[in-house]
Write a structure and sequence with these properties.
The protein has eight helices and five strands. By secondary structure, it is an alpha+beta fold. The two termini are about 15 Å apart.
Length: about 200
Amino acid sequence: MLAGAVLADLALHESVAITTTRTGSINVEAVREKAPPSDEILHSAWEYVSDKPRGVQTVLPAIGPRLRHPLLERLIARGDIRRENRKVLGFFKMTALKDSQNGRRAGLLKEVRDVLVDGTEPTARIAALAALIWASGALPQFDPQIPWTQSVINRAQELERGNWGAGATSEAVTRTMTAVIVNSVISTAAVASPHQ
């Protein structure tokens, strides 16, 4: 899922392009007309596809495993998450990650809720976030803040397909690329899941 989020972010910044091969597979490639991303996490993923176009299903597992640690460290450094040390059974040390209550999570969750529940037209970033939350299978965990209802499911599925609302015509390509990435994440998750 983190790799999907990074690819979606690159697509939203128009740093990558999606192409379809003659056989119908989806490739992602770096857009060379633009400067490489300055963010080190995005830059690393961009570099991976800058050598040659690569299949989305190849890119996701190639960049994904290295993302968790640097992203968590960034969230901790920024104050969005805090580490809490505990002892289990009185002597086993354990570290838990907690919401720092700085309002960032609550703000993002409200924006996603506004889109999924109230039908607010999303920004491209919030549409991609909501689609990725849906794709990850984590959406039910946000109930009751985001009620798990059929209308919410339907809206999430629309976002997954790239139906974000009227928006600017210039965002149509970005919506399509993000939808392709989200659907690739869903396909990868389905193959990787032992329960499906």
